[in-house]
Design a protein that fits this description.
Elements: E1 6-9, E2 12-13, E3 17-24, E4 30-37, E5 40-41, E6 44-47, E7 60-61, E8 95-98, E9 105-108, H1 117-130, E10 133-135, H2 143-153, E11 164-165, H3 191-194
Parallel strand pairs: 9-10
Antiparallel strand pairs: 1-6, 2-5, 3-4, 7-11, 8-9
């Protein structure tokens, strides 16, 4: 998908201010005590403005496309071939940790653009176990590498009602894109509607 013109702003703790609180002891004498008050500014997303966008060819477009009706596609679960301890995938990892006991794992040191088939099988198994897996700093995972990785697990799907990249030949890429002209959707749709899949009922 095309990277958005967004720069996440992390929550920060602002300088601590000091307040003087007055109180009386058991004998009725007044005392003053200093108490630190923590100022806090919540994280937010800053939308940047760019005169020229380096990924313009991946920005959304809605060309007049027509495809053959969907047919049932044979599927083979690559995770069944994965190692139960994920040893192939984690061989080059420098760190791995779970976000919580139920869902979410982050792995450092693994280049998704250069996975072996054995590592891809482990990845499929790990995702089926943990639900979602995060890999940061994937500078080599360009659009073609993403498509190649996805195609290993099955036929890439062409979504009939959403945007495709402006660059021809990427009709199987689903574009998620936001810039400074995009309208906020959180006040219009419930979170359960904003984050969902439209292809769960289609033949795969």
């Amino acid at each position: 998908m095309a990277p958005a013109l967004l720069e996440p702003i992390q929550p920060i703790g602002l300088p601590v201010s000091t307040k003087l609180l007055g109180f009386h002891d058991a004998l009725g004498q007044k005392h003053t005590q200093a108490k630190k008050a923590i100022a806090y500014e919540p994280g937010r997303t800053l939308v940047e403005s760019h005169d020229s966008y380096e990924h313009q060819d991946l920005c959304p477009s809605f060309p007049n496309l027509h495809w053959e009706p969907l047919k049932e596609v044979p599927y083979h679960d690559k995770g069944l071939q994965g190692d139960a301890r994920f040893r192939n995938l984690l061989a080059s990892a420098t760190d791995v940790f779970d976000y919580n006991p139920k869902i979410g794992t982050e792995i450092h040191g693994v280049n998704l653009a250069k996975l072996t088939d054995a590592q891809k099988n482990d990845l499929a198994r790990l995702i089926s176990t943990r639900g979602v897996v995060f890999f940061r700093n994937q500078s080599e995972l360009d659009i073609e590498a993403q498509r190649e990785l996805g195609a290993y697990f099955g036929k890439l799907h062409k979504h009939a009602t959403t945007a495709v990249p402006q660059r021809p030949g990427l009709e199987d890429v689903h574009v998620v894109y936001t810039d400074r002209t995009s309208k906020g959707q959180r006040a219009v749709f419930a979170p359960s509607f904003l984050w969902h899949s439209d292809v769960r009922t289609l033949y795969r």
